[in-house]
Amino acid sequence: MTAHTLVLDQVSLVHSDGDETITALDGIDLRVAPGEIVAIVGPSGAGKSSLLAASGGLIRPTSGTVTVGGADLAGLSGKQLTELRRTRIGFVFQTSNLVPALKAVDQLRLPLTFGKVRDPRDPMELLEEVGMAHKAKRRPHQLSGGERQRLGIARALVTRPQVLLVDEPTAALDRQRSQDVVALLAKETKAQGVATIMVTHDHEVLHHCDRVHEMIDGRLGEPAPR
Hints:
Blueprint: E1 6-17, E2 20-32, E3 37-41, H1 48-55, E4 63-68, E5 71-72, H2 78-88, E6 89-92, H3 104-109, H4 123-129, H5 145-157, E7 163-167, H6 175-192, E8 195-199, E9 211-216, E10 219-220
Parallel strand pairs: 3-8, 3-9, 6-7, 7-8
Antiparallel strand pairs: 1-2, 1-4, 4-5, 9-10
Helix pairs in contact: 5-6
């Protein structure tokens, strides 16, 4: 039986907006194994971003449990949760969120300066792996959109996280670069044994994923037929 790295068990998130009660997540059950990439699709406002935030410990659910590598996030202090996010969870953002002044290789070194990381990846070796070694001394404004996303993926992987959370990585890319970026994500997910969730509106990249779930009104559907 496969041990799942990321487990969401009956996770709900309810908040108030004036007199209205909004259910962002409604009883989510999700298990992601090492080396598996799971895509989440659905309309805007369906709860996809809330799902990523709960999975990464950025918000605490109203009910249910989130477990990363056997650690129940609800039982962690704020300091412990910060440490877990820093070392066990990688985030890839829609706009890559790179530091404008830093060279590519220094973007990868930066996460390693916030305390001790056990067995980090070598930044230059990782840049080579994602096809960016020749741009190691370039700054973000000197890179294309696809290159910035590749760099963002490398930065997320440099600490050897157990979980990778990816938010709309192809939103600003053309069709070919979108395919390249998600193919790279899938490759790295398998190679490093990372449990990956990717939120996307881009149905043309879904063939790179192991499972696809549709999310509507805070509920997660069964995996779509492949």
